[in-house]
Design a protein that fits this description.
Low-confidence stretches: none
Strand content: 5-15%
Order of helices and strands: HHHEHHEEH
CATH architecture: Orthogonal Bundle
Radius of gyration: 15 Å
Structural class: mainly alpha
Number of domains: 1
Mean pLDDT: 85
Shape: globular
Distance between the termini: 36 Å
Strand order of the largest sheet: 1-3-2
CATH class: Mainly Alpha
Number of helices: 6
Number of strands: 3
Length: about 110
């Protein structure tokens, strides 16, 4: 198992909204972990692996009918980047990617 796979351990469940409440109650996943999965899914499925905070807010609402506070979501995405679940795009404030190769996308475009 690679370090990358180890970091994803327990976070590979994806969207749990299709599961019955009785089953979700048996899981030890927190609401925050579910939000992490939602953020990753929205960025990948709706925005081709790169999105800013506004796009994620709208994407979560459209896909999950859930309203997130901007500051809470920004803090969450920042922490996800610090733990390697997301990558902060260099040269763009508030833009995140799920693909490491896109992390330097904007800085490489300038050169």
């Amino acid at each position: 198992m690679t370090e990358e796979n180890f970091k994803k351990l327990g976070r590979r469940l994806g969207d749990l909204s299709d599961l019955p409440e009785e089953l979700r109650a048996e899981l030890q996943i927190t609401k925050t972990d579910e939000l992490e999965n939602q953020i990753i899914e929205v960025i990948n499925e709706s925005y081709e692996g790169m999105a800013n905070i506004d796009e994620v807010i709208v994407g979560i609402y459209r896909k999950y009918n859930d309203i997130q506070k901007r500051q809470f979501l920004a803090n969450k995405m920042y922490r996800m980047a610090k733990t390697g679940l997301l990558y902060s795009v260099k040269g763009r404030k508030g833009v995140y990617t799920t693909k490491e190769e896109l992390e330097s996308y904007y800085t490489s475009k300038k050169n």
